[in-house]
Amino acid sequence: MQKISIDVIVHFLNSRNSREKLMIVVGAVLALAAIDNFLLIMPSAHSFLTTGPRLATLKRDLQTLKEDRRNEALIQKNWEETKATLAQSEKSLISANELPTLLENLSQLAQNTGVKIISLNPREELSLKNTKPAIYPIIPIDLRAVAGLHELGAFLSKLEGGQTFFRVADIKISVNPSHLTQHSVELRLETYRKI
Questions:
Q1: Which of 62, 153, 163, 189 has the greatest CB tally within 10 Å of its CB?
Q2: Is 114 helix (H, G, I), strand (E, B) or coil?
Q3: Tens digits of residue pLDDT in 161-190
Q4: Cα dihedral sign for 101, 102, 103, 104?
Q5: In Å, what is the CA distance from 158 to each residue of 99, 122, 129, 184, 192?
Q6: If 0-12 CB within 10 Å is exposed, 13-18 middle and 19+ buried, where does residue 1 land?
Q7: 190: how many CB neighbours lie within 10 A of its CB?
Q8: Using one digit for the tens of pLDDT, what is the confidence trace for 103-113?
Q9: Separation of CA 94 from chain center
Q10: How far is CA 49 from the centre of its chain?
Q11: Which H/E stretch holds residue 138?
Q12: What is the dihedral of CA 98, 100, 101, 103, to 10 degrees?
């Protein structure tokens, strides 16, 4: 069967003049090139173009993993140090049931430094809708007091140097008309709560 089909093609070509033979051969070569292009070259090129960038990324990731493997002991040491630092830092945060004690300690600290507290109002921050809850929620504390500048400085210094973490978010100092050396102070302190 195959011999017959080749014989038919040869007979067909031999029955044509040389110009027709050339056109048929060129047409056949172009058809084979087009088929080869669509079936082999284009899929291979597409595959190369899509996997090339992924391959570069994978090579880069592999190199990073090899470097991490070489530095595994150092990475492990840094991880342990970071965990210890985090555990130590968490000790300066308060738990939910420690807020009354914290307010007592804050009041005692103010009294020891000569700051007279007028009002002390802790409040939970209202969580905004569509926001992720904080890992360590902020507990703002509004404090109104009367103090001299030196007493206020000593109070803030001891507050910052204490075991519990405090951040002064806002401070307003105004003249106290009833006393020349004492000022009206409004502080907004922030501390953080452990969950």
A1: 189
A2: coil
A3: 888 888 889 999 998 888 888 899 999 998
A4: positive
A5: 18, 19, 36, 20, 18
A6: exposed
A7: 15
A8: 888 889 999 99
A9: 25
A10: 31
A11: strand 138-147
A12: 120
